[in-house]
Design a protein that fits this description.
The chain is mainly beta and 269 residues long. The chain is 10% helix and 48% strand.
Protein backbone atom coordinates (compact mmCIF):
# COMPACT_ATOMS: atom_id res chain seq x y z
CA UNK A 1 0.00 0.00 0.00
CA UNK A 2 2.83 2.35 0.80
CA UNK A 3 4.33 1.80 -2.64
CA UNK A 4 0.94 2.49 -4.25
CA UNK A 5 0.57 5.77 -2.39
CA UNK A 6 4.01 6.81 -3.48
CA UNK A 7 3.09 6.02 -7.07
CA UNK A 8 -0.08 8.15 -6.85
CA UNK A 9 1.88 11.06 -5.43
CA UNK A 10 4.46 10.70 -8.16
CA UNK A 11 1.80 10.69 -10.86
CA UNK A 12 0.11 13.74 -9.37
CA UNK A 13 3.40 15.54 -9.27
CA UNK A 14 4.07 14.63 -12.89
CA UNK A 15 0.64 15.94 -13.92
CA UNK A 16 1.15 19.21 -12.09
CA UNK A 17 4.59 19.49 -13.57
CA UNK A 18 3.30 18.94 -17.12
CA UNK A 19 0.54 21.49 -16.57
CA UNK A 20 2.97 24.08 -15.28
CA UNK A 21 5.18 23.48 -18.31
CA UNK A 22 2.30 24.30 -20.68
CA UNK A 23 0.92 27.67 -19.52
CA UNK A 24 -1.67 29.56 -21.57
CA UNK A 25 0.14 31.84 -24.01
CA UNK A 26 -0.55 35.56 -24.37
CA UNK A 27 -2.77 36.64 -27.29
CA UNK A 28 -0.89 37.72 -30.42
CA UNK A 29 -2.12 40.90 -32.17
CA UNK A 30 -0.82 41.32 -35.72
CA UNK A 31 -1.36 44.50 -37.80
CA UNK A 32 -0.85 44.04 -41.53
CA UNK A 33 0.29 47.61 -42.22
CA UNK A 34 3.90 48.52 -41.39
CA UNK A 35 2.65 52.13 -41.23
CA UNK A 36 -1.00 53.08 -40.73
CA UNK A 37 -1.77 56.01 -43.06
CA UNK A 38 -5.10 57.82 -43.07
CA UNK A 39 -5.58 59.24 -46.58
CA UNK A 40 -8.34 61.84 -46.33
CA UNK A 41 -8.60 61.78 -50.13
CA UNK A 42 -9.67 58.12 -50.08
CA UNK A 43 -11.82 57.32 -47.07
CA UNK A 44 -12.82 53.97 -48.61
CA UNK A 45 -9.26 52.59 -48.65
CA UNK A 46 -8.31 50.01 -46.00
CA UNK A 47 -6.87 51.94 -43.07
CA UNK A 48 -5.95 49.09 -40.74
CA UNK A 49 -6.33 45.32 -40.88
CA UNK A 50 -4.92 42.39 -39.01
CA UNK A 51 -5.56 39.36 -36.84
CA UNK A 52 -5.77 38.36 -33.18
CA UNK A 53 -4.76 34.79 -32.29
CA UNK A 54 -5.19 33.19 -28.87
CA UNK A 55 -4.07 29.99 -27.21
CA UNK A 56 -6.12 26.91 -28.06
CA UNK A 57 -6.79 26.48 -24.33
CA UNK A 58 -8.18 30.02 -24.03
CA UNK A 59 -11.42 31.70 -25.18
CA UNK A 60 -12.27 35.21 -26.37
CA UNK A 61 -14.34 37.49 -24.18
CA UNK A 62 -14.03 40.94 -25.78
CA UNK A 63 -12.21 42.83 -28.55
CA UNK A 64 -12.26 46.61 -28.98
CA UNK A 65 -10.81 48.78 -31.75
CA UNK A 66 -10.45 52.35 -30.46
CA UNK A 67 -9.35 55.55 -32.23
CA UNK A 68 -7.86 58.37 -30.19
CA UNK A 69 -7.81 61.97 -31.42
CA UNK A 70 -5.65 64.99 -30.63
CA UNK A 71 -8.29 66.44 -28.31
CA UNK A 72 -8.39 63.17 -26.31
CA UNK A 73 -11.70 62.18 -27.93
CA UNK A 74 -12.00 58.41 -28.38
CA UNK A 75 -14.25 56.35 -30.59
CA UNK A 76 -14.40 52.58 -30.56
CA UNK A 77 -16.00 49.41 -31.84
CA UNK A 78 -16.59 46.46 -29.51
CA UNK A 79 -17.09 42.77 -30.29
CA UNK A 80 -18.25 40.02 -27.93
CA UNK A 81 -19.05 37.17 -30.34
CA UNK A 82 -16.22 35.18 -31.90
CA UNK A 83 -15.12 32.11 -33.77
CA UNK A 84 -12.68 29.97 -31.78
CA UNK A 85 -8.98 30.67 -31.97
CA UNK A 86 -8.66 33.87 -34.00
CA UNK A 87 -10.35 37.15 -34.88
CA UNK A 88 -9.63 39.03 -38.13
CA UNK A 89 -10.34 42.73 -38.62
CA UNK A 90 -10.26 45.22 -41.50
CA UNK A 91 -11.46 48.83 -41.43
CA UNK A 92 -11.63 51.82 -43.74
CA UNK A 93 -11.57 55.36 -42.37
CA UNK A 94 -15.33 55.54 -42.96
CA UNK A 95 -15.83 52.45 -40.78
CA UNK A 96 -14.16 54.25 -37.88
CA UNK A 97 -15.56 57.74 -38.50
CA UNK A 98 -17.60 59.39 -35.74
CA UNK A 99 -19.77 62.19 -37.18
CA UNK A 100 -18.72 64.73 -34.57
CA UNK A 101 -14.96 64.37 -35.01
CA UNK A 102 -12.44 65.76 -37.50
CA UNK A 103 -10.68 62.72 -38.94
CA UNK A 104 -7.56 64.80 -39.60
CA UNK A 105 -7.03 64.83 -35.83
CA UNK A 106 -6.72 61.05 -35.47
CA UNK A 107 -3.56 60.14 -33.51
CA UNK A 108 -3.59 56.39 -33.02
CA UNK A 109 -5.62 53.18 -33.06
CA UNK A 110 -5.61 50.71 -30.18
CA UNK A 111 -6.50 47.04 -30.55
CA UNK A 112 -7.45 45.43 -27.24
CA UNK A 113 -8.34 41.79 -26.55
CA UNK A 114 -9.57 40.20 -23.35
CA UNK A 115 -9.76 36.44 -23.04
CA UNK A 116 -10.83 34.18 -20.21
CA UNK A 117 -7.25 34.20 -18.94
CA UNK A 118 -5.33 37.02 -20.59
CA UNK A 119 -5.38 40.62 -21.81
CA UNK A 120 -3.34 42.17 -24.59
CA UNK A 121 -3.13 45.64 -26.17
CA UNK A 122 -1.45 46.95 -29.30
CA UNK A 123 -1.42 50.67 -30.18
CA UNK A 124 -0.29 51.97 -33.57
CA UNK A 125 0.28 55.61 -34.53
CA UNK A 126 -1.64 57.05 -37.47
CA UNK A 127 -0.09 59.29 -40.13
CA UNK A 128 -2.66 61.60 -41.73
CA UNK A 129 -2.40 62.65 -45.38
CA UNK A 130 -4.32 65.90 -45.74
CA UNK A 131 -6.96 66.48 -48.40
CA UNK A 132 -5.36 67.62 -51.62
CA UNK A 133 -7.22 70.71 -52.77
CA UNK A 134 -7.90 71.27 -56.46
CA UNK A 135 -6.93 74.75 -57.61
CA UNK A 136 -9.32 76.51 -59.97
CA UNK A 137 -8.02 77.67 -63.35
CA UNK A 138 -9.13 81.06 -64.69
CA UNK A 139 -10.10 81.97 -68.25
CA UNK A 140 -11.87 84.85 -69.97
CA UNK A 141 -15.31 84.41 -71.52
CA UNK A 142 -17.49 86.27 -73.99
CA UNK A 143 -21.23 85.79 -74.38
CA UNK A 144 -22.79 87.31 -77.48
CA UNK A 145 -26.34 87.61 -78.77
CA UNK A 146 -27.08 89.02 -82.24
CA UNK A 147 -30.62 90.29 -82.80
CA UNK A 148 -33.09 87.50 -81.95
CA UNK A 149 -30.61 84.62 -82.29
CA UNK A 150 -29.73 82.54 -79.26
CA UNK A 151 -26.74 83.74 -77.28
CA UNK A 152 -23.37 82.15 -77.99
CA UNK A 153 -20.71 80.97 -75.53
CA UNK A 154 -23.03 80.01 -72.68
CA UNK A 155 -23.56 76.30 -73.24
CA UNK A 156 -20.23 75.38 -71.59
CA UNK A 157 -21.59 76.82 -68.35
CA UNK A 158 -24.93 75.05 -68.67
CA UNK A 159 -26.68 78.33 -69.54
CA UNK A 160 -28.79 79.80 -72.34
CA UNK A 161 -29.69 83.30 -73.47
CA UNK A 162 -32.65 83.36 -75.80
CA UNK A 163 -34.47 86.52 -74.82
CA UNK A 164 -34.47 89.82 -72.98
CA UNK A 165 -37.02 90.81 -70.36
CA UNK A 166 -39.18 93.49 -72.02
CA UNK A 167 -36.07 94.27 -74.09
CA UNK A 168 -34.54 95.92 -70.99
CA UNK A 169 -32.52 93.20 -69.22
CA UNK A 170 -30.69 90.17 -70.58
CA UNK A 171 -32.29 86.94 -69.36
CA UNK A 172 -29.75 84.19 -68.62
CA UNK A 173 -31.36 80.83 -67.82
CA UNK A 174 -30.03 77.42 -66.74
CA UNK A 175 -30.10 74.61 -69.28
CA UNK A 176 -31.66 71.30 -68.24
CA UNK A 177 -30.60 70.27 -64.72
CA UNK A 178 -27.97 73.00 -64.38
CA UNK A 179 -27.96 74.72 -60.99
CA UNK A 180 -27.44 78.49 -61.27
CA UNK A 181 -26.74 80.61 -58.19
CA UNK A 182 -25.68 84.18 -57.49
CA UNK A 183 -23.02 84.56 -54.79
CA UNK A 184 -22.20 87.29 -52.32
CA UNK A 185 -18.64 85.94 -52.02
CA UNK A 186 -15.84 87.90 -53.64
CA UNK A 187 -14.78 86.22 -56.89
CA UNK A 188 -11.08 86.48 -55.96
CA UNK A 189 -11.62 84.72 -52.63
CA UNK A 190 -12.75 81.42 -54.16
CA UNK A 191 -9.65 79.60 -55.37
CA UNK A 192 -10.28 75.86 -54.88
CA UNK A 193 -12.83 73.46 -56.30
CA UNK A 194 -13.61 72.16 -52.81
CA UNK A 195 -14.52 75.67 -51.62
CA UNK A 196 -16.67 76.32 -54.70
CA UNK A 197 -18.51 73.01 -54.31
CA UNK A 198 -19.17 73.67 -50.63
CA UNK A 199 -20.68 77.08 -51.42
CA UNK A 200 -22.81 75.96 -54.37
CA UNK A 201 -24.03 72.76 -52.70
CA UNK A 202 -24.86 74.75 -49.58
CA UNK A 203 -27.42 76.85 -51.48
CA UNK A 204 -30.63 74.87 -51.42
CA UNK A 205 -32.45 76.41 -54.38
CA UNK A 206 -30.96 77.74 -57.60
CA UNK A 207 -32.16 80.66 -59.74
CA UNK A 208 -34.72 80.24 -62.50
CA UNK A 209 -32.90 83.03 -64.36
CA UNK A 210 -30.47 85.92 -63.92
CA UNK A 211 -31.42 89.44 -65.06
CA UNK A 212 -28.60 91.68 -63.88
CA UNK A 213 -27.15 92.85 -67.21
CA UNK A 214 -28.75 95.69 -69.18
CA UNK A 215 -29.97 95.09 -72.72
CA UNK A 216 -30.27 98.83 -73.45
CA UNK A 217 -27.29 100.66 -71.90
CA UNK A 218 -24.45 100.81 -74.43
CA UNK A 219 -21.79 99.97 -71.82
CA UNK A 220 -21.91 99.09 -68.15
CA UNK A 221 -19.31 97.75 -65.70
CA UNK A 222 -20.42 95.02 -63.32
CA UNK A 223 -19.07 92.72 -60.65
CA UNK A 224 -21.67 89.96 -60.54
CA UNK A 225 -20.49 86.62 -59.19
CA UNK A 226 -22.44 83.60 -60.42
CA UNK A 227 -21.80 79.89 -60.21
CA UNK A 228 -23.18 76.88 -62.00
CA UNK A 229 -23.16 73.16 -61.40
CA UNK A 230 -23.37 71.26 -64.69
CA UNK A 231 -23.54 67.54 -63.94
CA UNK A 232 -20.43 67.07 -61.78
CA UNK A 233 -18.67 70.18 -63.13
CA UNK A 234 -18.59 73.50 -61.26
CA UNK A 235 -18.04 76.97 -62.76
CA UNK A 236 -17.43 80.28 -61.00
CA UNK A 237 -18.43 83.22 -63.23
CA UNK A 238 -17.54 86.89 -62.81
CA UNK A 239 -19.50 89.20 -65.14
CA UNK A 240 -17.39 92.34 -65.65
CA UNK A 241 -19.10 94.42 -68.35
CA UNK A 242 -21.41 94.53 -71.34
CA UNK A 243 -21.45 96.37 -74.65
CA UNK A 244 -24.17 97.02 -77.20
CA UNK A 245 -23.68 97.70 -80.90
CA UNK A 246 -26.67 98.64 -83.05
CA UNK A 247 -26.49 97.63 -86.72
CA UNK A 248 -29.47 98.61 -88.92
CA UNK A 249 -28.86 95.61 -91.17
CA UNK A 250 -27.88 92.78 -88.80
CA UNK A 251 -29.68 94.02 -85.72
CA UNK A 252 -28.42 94.75 -82.21
CA UNK A 253 -25.45 92.81 -80.84
CA UNK A 254 -25.15 92.54 -77.07
CA UNK A 255 -21.88 91.24 -75.64
CA UNK A 256 -21.24 90.23 -72.03
CA UNK A 257 -17.62 89.81 -70.92
CA UNK A 258 -15.94 88.47 -67.84
CA UNK A 259 -13.78 85.74 -66.34
CA UNK A 260 -14.56 82.28 -65.05
CA UNK A 261 -12.83 79.63 -62.98
CA UNK A 262 -13.16 75.87 -63.06
CA UNK A 263 -11.06 72.80 -62.31
CA UNK A 264 -8.48 71.97 -64.93
CA UNK A 265 -9.49 68.97 -67.04
CA UNK A 266 -7.86 65.68 -66.08
CA UNK A 267 -5.04 64.60 -68.37
CA UNK A 268 -5.67 61.10 -69.71
CA UNK A 269 -2.41 59.34 -70.56
Amino acid sequence: MKKFNLLVVALLGLTIGLTSCNPIEDPIITVDQSEVVLDLNDMEAVLISGKIEIDAKDTFEKVTITCTYSNAFTYGLEYVEFNPGSFSFSYTANDLKPEEQDMAEMKNITVYVKTANKEQTKTVDVTVNAVQETQLVEEAFEWKRVASAAGEGLEQFGLQWTGNAKEIMCVIKPLGDTKLVELTNAYADIVTLENLKEIVDGIETGLTDFRGVSATVVHNDYDFVLATKVGEEYYLINIKNNSIVVDPIHGTTITINGNYKTAAPEIVE
